[in-house]
Amino acid sequence: MPFSSSTSQFRKEVDEALHAFVGRQAPGLLAIGEDLRPMITALTALLSGGKRLRPAFCYWGWRAAGGEDVPEIATAAASLELLQASALVHDDVMDASDTRRGQPSVHRRFEALHAEHAWRGDAATFGEGAAILLGDLLLAWSGEMFETSGLPEDRRARGRRVYDLMRTEVMCGQYLDMLESTRAGGTVESALRVVDFKSAKYTIERPLHLGAALAGGSDELTASLTGYGRPLGMAFQLRDDVLGVFGDPSETGKPAGDDLREGKRTVLIALTLERATPEQASTVDRLLGDPDLSELGVTDLREIIAETGGLAACETMIDRFATEARTALAAAPVTGEAREALTDLATAATARTF
Amino acid sequence: MPFSSSTSQFRKEVDEALHAFVGRQAPGLLAIGEDLRPMITALTALLSGGKRLRPAFCYWGWRAAGGEDVPEIATAAASLELLQASALVHDDVMDASDTRRGQPSVHRRFEALHAEHAWRGDAATFGEGAAILLGDLLLAWSGEMFETSGLPEDRRARGRRVYDLMRTEVMCGQYLDMLESTRAGGTVESALRVVDFKSAKYTIERPLHLGAALAGGSDELTASLTGYGRPLGMAFQLRDDVLGVFGDPSETGKPAGDDLREGKRTVLIALTLERATPEQASTVDRLLGDPDLSELGVTDLREIIAETGGLAACETMIDRFATEARTALAAAPVTGEAREALTDLATAATARTF
């Protein structure tokens, strides 16, 4: 792990804050009905995984702006994990994904619960409905956790503006992402625009801004954090796209080739199509998005992505974005400690495996 | 319309507050991408309908607690319409409903958009994905609209606790509702429990509490509002269940018999099954929840619900709850103006048509 000890310590605090929050909510749910226990089980399992990247960036945005290492910031930052969990649950419904973080996705869990009890009606429909509701609950709770973090209102008021913007951006970015995969003729440029809103801002830039806003950081600092966070966020998503095609399922928590079966029109795919022969392009068009794509089909697509030079172009782009981020960080008006942590996070966010 | 002029005036203010909020958000969405315009169109169409019951109860909870008639309360109360719109959009996905408020449901709108452009992939899947995201956006915006209402933080802090509770209750209540329809052996008692959380608290009791909390109302007032709001909420939902089976589609905005096709295990159905002969019960079990149920099947079910006395028992229950609400209101420590408005709202919420 490339994390410094202060970052591992923070991760533990995030886990504890999440555990405490869910622990406070659970009795209320069970008072409504014992039947809600599977909801608690499902969300607890989901929250046990994850890299806690967004809380880490939020925390270092806070520290970079001179915020003290107090427990309240861990709670406010940890609320981003509930937002992310909500997005994952709904994403998995939309993509009909079977697994998440190496476990069954939430809708599949509830589908199995339905089947196990031989309940009336369609098990898959029940599973999707339960997952939509659990995602809604997690989204509502993310706001609740932020507001009850214990940070004073003047700080929360500044942070809330960033939080609001981030939520709108990620939801709109996800819609654009869906649109990108349904329309023919996507370009590298249009794929990069999706990455910006769906992922770069949401995962790195806005969490940094949130932390800085909570601490009362200057406009100059905010601009510096953008200079570092935005290219790093781009690199992070491009790395994720590469891992989605070439990654080890035991590392990614997703079956090999799932991104290809879902037909995701990533920057990696756009770079490939830009370089493909007509024959290669038509193979990509035929295989990409086929939900029943075989192992052989996955191998064919991987070969085309590598042979066209699409993969190499994507790696070059990742390096360029990562270098841009590091250069901006070197010039940023932050403490030595924050600079070190943000350097570590940059490595973690773009590593070939994690 | 049974509304007093001050209530119609308030409705206008709610409409204006919603219009202003969406108007402030739209440029941000279009800056992310022109492709987001259909999202704005869909949510504007959805928000143009609705009875504005929840904002009205919130407003009269505020007034009952001595709150002044200021624009900020209209904005805070109107945010409940965004929460409700979110719930409706997600509900329609879960129930695969074609229409809402007399218009195509959001997922059907986006399905049509996909089909119209002959985009790649499955149009229905695209429609559902877009609706899940739009529901998420509306949920996030409900919190944002509340927090940016202009009410001072000490008031919002009190209201936030009610808001948080209400969101958790309604999402859990909807899960219990789904569970009720999938499990055999539901009783009148278990159906009433679902109504309590999914509908009675959410539609009436909590909005009243929210308004009262924002105004700094006493515990005594909060208890009085429960005495009025909870039975009225039960009556409201039972009326909605009756209208869902026997209502005029031009009034309900939903095709006749849709609740029967969805297989909703309402209190009305539970009361019917309690009174049914084995033969009638088996017909109900066979027809209820059949998505392709014919007009003739709808008529058969209606006849059984009427003939068993299920309908009459439900009407009796509605009357009993409504009377309980009125009795509590008569004894509540509220001004004459609030009492009059809450009397009107009780009539509106339980009227045979609206």
UniProtKB/TrEMBL annotation, chains A, B:
The keyword Disulfide bond is assigned to this record: no
A Pfam family that the UniProt record links to this protein: polyprenyl_synt
Organism domain of life: Bacteria
Cofactor (UniProt): Mg(2+)
Keywords per UniProt: Magnesium, Metal-binding, Transferase
Broad EC category: transferase
One annotated GO molecular function: transferase activity
Protein's UniProt keywords contain Nucleotide-binding: no
E.C. number: 2.5.1.-
Family, per entry: Belongs to the FPP/GGPP synthase family.
Name this polypeptide is given: Polyprenyl synthetase family protein
